[in-house]
């Protein structure tokens, strides 16, 4: 990029592949889109360099639903509430640690029974649609300690969360309709925020369900000094956006890539998983930690298809961003937008970066984990109250491993058909070969 362009000034000669380009006009305060290499991407988790004090325009509708409380995701680490609310999220995760494995696994038998029935009767099973109920049940049971059917929300939860997520994420979505001109889709989804009244009554149902059912969590929030109402709005966001929404974009690509890898990888995963589970006497934290190939497969899925590919930050001081062989001068106040797959598919770091390589992070390959950024930080780093790294980083990796463990305890191999949907991958199961493992 020529140094004559405003907003992105090349101060060291760059390679043929540009790192910094003009932003699309649909972005808030469009100035520059920063195409990041692994050496440059840490900007998005470098606290002295970037800030997030203002609500993102695309998500502004949220603030009209939750009495204008700014939830943790929209706070800058320099703000006092960030530390408090991040510690609240850590407290919740710590208190539920023993429940992670049993609560998650308890919902999987019904999920796979439904998938098997659909494959048998229809020839295919839509994983994305079927799994929503399991996601919501897991979130609600984990946080509230009860089944949604025992609360007023009952079976409405998945649909309500999905509508609420659509309102928040529509600027990033594409309908994929060939008969609909792009400019009409842009006008409908990418130009103006969708009005919050569309989901206000549904959001209130969610709020009431968590307010009534998660009393022990909210009690802890109050003991920490958080207003009970504010704690509940943060809980709804954590449950709906971060966890339910996170699983919707986490599991389909994981299953897609493993399914497409074929029977050889399936045999290797099945052998490892069944051997370790038998030796450890069950599916435990210790057992999961010993599954080197399973862990590598999870990290590779997070590398090749990060659940949240878009990140942004506003420079709070003049700074220089470095790539492998170039440097760019950024001025205070300029918005920087990062597309994570450019970093996690850098051919200077990852061999065959566009390919799914199941063994990539085994042995010496573990050293490459520092270039995996899906959690808004390096995989080798840990979330703290002072940074913006995902509080549930370790839980995401855990439930990804659990999904693979459950699949290969039940099945020897499976076939999938993949596609795209509004945001992320769509996966259809075409066949499942049951395991004789006991």
Automatic annotation (TrEMBL):
<keyword id="KW-0456">Lyase</keyword>
<dbReference type="GO" id="GO:0020037">
    <property type="term" value="F:heme binding"/>
</dbReference>
<dbReference type="GO" id="GO:0016705">
    <property type="term" value="F:oxidoreductase activity, acting on paired donors, with incorporation or reduction of molecular oxygen"/>
</dbReference>
<dbReference type="Pfam" id="PF00067">
    <property type="entry name" value="p450"/>
</dbReference>
<dbReference type="GO" id="GO:0004497">
    <property type="term" value="F:monooxygenase activity"/>
</dbReference>
<dbReference type="GO" id="GO:0005506">
    <property type="term" value="F:iron ion binding"/>
</dbReference>
<keyword id="KW-0408">Iron</keyword>
<protein>
    <submittedName>
        <fullName>Allene oxide synthase 3</fullName>
    </submittedName>
</protein>
<dbReference type="InterPro" id="IPR002403">
    <property type="entry name" value="Cyt_P450_E_grp-IV"/>
</dbReference>
<dbReference type="GO" id="GO:0006631">
    <property type="term" value="P:fatty acid metabolic process"/>
</dbReference>
<keyword id="KW-0479">Metal-binding</keyword>
<dbReference type="GO" id="GO:0016829">
    <property type="term" value="F:lyase activity"/>
</dbReference>
<dbReference type="InterPro" id="IPR036396">
    <property type="entry name" value="Cyt_P450_sf"/>
</dbReference>
<dbReference type="InterPro" id="IPR001128">
    <property type="entry name" value="Cyt_P450"/>
</dbReference>
<feature type="compositionally biased region" description="Polar residues">
    <location>
        <begin position="12"/>
        <end position="24"/>
    </location>
</feature>
<keyword id="KW-0349">Heme</keyword>
<feature type="binding site" description="axial binding residue">
    <location>
        <position position="390"/>
    </location>
    <ligand>
        <name>heme</name>
    </ligand>
</feature>
<comment type="similarity">
    <text>Belongs to the cytochrome P450 family.</text>
</comment>
<feature type="region of interest" description="Disordered">
    <location>
        <begin position="1"/>
        <end position="24"/>
    </location>
</feature>
């Amino acid at each position: 990029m020529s140094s004559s362009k405003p907003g992105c000034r090349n101060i060291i000669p760059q390679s043929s592949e540009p790192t910094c380009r003009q932003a699309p006009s649909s972005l808030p305060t469009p100035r520059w889109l920063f195409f990041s290499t692994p050496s440059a991407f840490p900007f998005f988790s470098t606290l002295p360099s970037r800030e997030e004090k203002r609500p993102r325009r695309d998500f502004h509708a949220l603030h009209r639903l939750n009495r204008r409380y700014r939830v943790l995701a929209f706070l800058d680490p320099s703000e006092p509430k960030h530390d408090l609310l991040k510690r609240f999220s850590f407290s919740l995760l710590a208190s539920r640690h023993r429940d992670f494995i049993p609560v998650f696994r308890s919902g999987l038998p019904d999920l796979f029974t439904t998938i098997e029935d659909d494959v048998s009767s229809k020839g295919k099973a839509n994983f994305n649609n079927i799994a929503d109920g399991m996601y919501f049940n897991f979130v609600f049971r984990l946080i509230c300690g009860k089944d949604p059917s025992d609360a007023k929300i009952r079976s409405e939860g998945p649909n309500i969360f999905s509508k609420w997520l659509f309102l928040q994420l529509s600027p990033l979505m594409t309908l994929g309709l060939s008969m609909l001109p792009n400019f009409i889709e842009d006008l409908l989804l990418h130009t103006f925020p969708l009005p919050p009244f569309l989901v206000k009554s549904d959001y209130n149902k969610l709020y009431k369900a968590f307010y009534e059912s998660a009393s022990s969590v909210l009690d802890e929030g109050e003991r920490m000094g958080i207003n009970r109402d504010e704690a509940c709005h943060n809980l709804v966001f954590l449950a709906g956006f971060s966890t339910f929404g996170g699983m919707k974009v986490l599991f389909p690509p994981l299953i897609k890539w493993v399914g497409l890898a074929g029977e050889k990888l399936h045999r290797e995963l099945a052998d490892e998983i069944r051997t370790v589970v038998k030796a450890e006497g069950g599916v435990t934290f210790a057992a999961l930690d010993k599954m080197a190939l399973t862990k590598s497969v999870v990290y590779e899925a997070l590398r090749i298809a990060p659940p949240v590919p878009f990140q942004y930050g506003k420079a709070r001081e003049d700074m220089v961003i470095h790539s492998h062989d170039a440097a760019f001068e950024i001025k205070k106040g300029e918005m920087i937008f990062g597309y994570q797959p450019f970093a996690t598919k850098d051919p200077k770091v990852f061999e065959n970066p566009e390919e799914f390589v199941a063994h990539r992070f085994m042995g010496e390959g573990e050293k490459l984990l520092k270039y995996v950024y899906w959690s808004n930080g390096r995989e080798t780093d840990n979330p703290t109250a002072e940074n913006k790294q995902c509080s549930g980083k370790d839980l995401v990796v855990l439930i990804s491993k659990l999904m693979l463990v459950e699949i290969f305890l039940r099945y020897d191999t499976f076939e999938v058909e993949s596609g795209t949907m509004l945001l992320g991958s769509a996966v259809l199961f075409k066949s499942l070969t049951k395991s004789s493992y006991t």
